[in-house]
Structure formats: structure tokens, C-alpha cells
Amino acid sequence: MKKLFSFIFAFFVLVGICSANGQKMNIDYESKRNLYGDFVIIPMDNTVTVTDGCITIAPKSEDVTYTISGYFNGQIVNKTKNTVLKLKNVFIENNKGEAAIYGFAKTEISTSRGTENYIISTGSSDLKNAAIQCKKNLEMGGSGTAYVVGEVYHGVKGDDVKFKGSGVYYIQGTESGSTVNCHSFIAEKEKSFKLYMLNSKNGIKADNTIMIESGNFYSYNNGTAFKTDTLADNPAEKHGIYISNGSIRVHKNEKVFDTEEKFCKVRPKVIEE
């Protein structure tokens, strides 16, 4: 099984590289489904409700971690603040135009070391849904690998979105959406994660600010790599892009930064690939 997952990882690294040349991150859903076993969630207790196509997690207290693995077709919903969903070789897809993972409350997605995880949203909707979507704040962490494909509109969407940890993320939205769409984007200090932003209108699109203090960012084949609203869009809020550390690599983007000119402070050198 370990060799099998290593093969999948190598395959998608190759696909990620191909995406830099303008190709989509295509996933052979049929063959990949068969590589993942039955869906398991731990703990499986009275805080977890299973209905047709939906698993609802609602612990009575905050800061509870649920480890999930295997294949599931439908939607996983979190209703309690600071719940952690630990992904351990999971393939979750929703083909109804909805999010595969949806948080009504602040949610953390954490990938386990040495695992490959797939979060896929397909279908159609009048709403600008994402594969991973949170009504409140969203954190993406851990040390594994996640492939997030939002074929409805966005890849990842939340209020304030924070990236941390040492994991690798391949995220793709649509030509109308963003890989990450949020009010504010934050990358913590001294983190080594890699974020591949692929084939979307925008890489990171924030209404307010983009604040990056570490991490490795790869923007391939997007309209704009890093974008915020401006005073013309919303004069009541501050807007800006502040990148003090980390690395930025881009390929085939129409534009790298788009924000209020005097509030674009970028220290790392942007490397064109």
C-alpha cells in the first residue's frame, strides 16, 4: 500500500509540473477511487451524524480532532468552533456543485505526514462554491500532501484563511474563480509549506489583505497570482499585500500582484520559471 501511495504522489508531482505549462490538474477519478478503502472517522461517536451523502460533526466542546481516511462521496460538515479534521489518506468528492468539506464554524484541515489526500468538488451551482469552504475562519496545516480541485468555482474559500505547517498543497479553482478566496490571507512565520496555485483566474484573492511571513508559493497559469480588493472596490477597509519572507515562483501569470500600489510591500525576489 505504501508503494501504491508513493506512485500516486509521483504521478501528481508530474501533473503539478505539467500544470505550469498550462495543462489542467486532471484526476482519473474512476481509478483513484478504487485505491481508497472504506471511509473511517475516529472517533465515531454520538457527535457524528451520518445521513445519505452527508456526515455532520458537532462535538460539544472546542478543539476536538477527528481523523478521517478512505473514500467518501458527499459532504463533510463541521458545526463546532476549532474542530480539527485530520486527513489520513482520504479521497472525498462531491459531484453536486457543493463543497466536499464545509465548516459552519472555524475549522482546521490538517494532513498527516506521509499521506496523500484528495478533496474534489464537481457539478454545477449558481453559488461560488469551493471544494473546501468555511463560513468562518479556516486553517490549513499538517505535514502531508493535499490535492484540492474546485471545478465549481473556487478551490478553497473561507473568511480569514491561514496556511501553516510543512505540508504540500496543490490547489486548483476555475477560470472564473480563485485557488484561495478569502477576506484575509495569512501565512505564519517560520513555516515550510508549499502551496501550488494552479490554472485559475486568481491564485490568492483576498478582499482585505494578504500577509505572508513564510512559506513557498508557486503560481502557475493564473490570471493574477496575488490580488486584493482596492479602495475603489471597498473604501471602508484597508487593502494591501505584505510579503516579508518565504519564496515566490511564477509561470504564465498575466499579472503577479494586484492591489493598492502604495500598500504592496514584497521583500522576496519573484522568480520567473
Structure described in brief:
With 273 residues, this protein is mostly beta strands. It is built from 2 helices and 27 strands.
Helix and strand topology:
Blueprint: H1 2-19, H2 29-33, E1 40-42, E2 48-51, E3 54-57, E4 65-73, E5 75-78, E6 83-94, E7 101-103, E8 107-111, E9 116-121, E10 130-134, E11 138-142, E12 145-150, E13 154-157, E14 160-163, E15 168-172, E16 178-182, E17 184-187, E18 194-198, E19 202-206, E20 209-212, E21 216-220, E22 224-228, E23 240-243, E24 247-251, E25 255-258, E26 264-266, E27 270-272
Parallel strand pairs: 3-5, 4-6, 5-7, 6-8, 6-9, 7-10, 8-11, 9-12, 10-13, 11-14, 12-15, 13-16, 14-17, 15-18, 16-19, 17-20, 18-21, 19-22, 20-23, 21-24, 22-25, 23-26, 24-27
Antiparallel strand pairs: 1-4, 2-3
The proportion of strand residues reads over 45%
Report the helical percentage: under 10%
- SSE run: HHEEEEEEEEEEEEEEEEEEEEEEEEEEE
**Total number of strands:** 27
Number of helices: 2
Average predicted confidence as pLDDT:
91
Shape summary? globular
Pick out the low-confidence regions. 1-21
Q: What is the rounded Rg? A: 18 Å
Number of domains: 1
Structural class: mainly beta
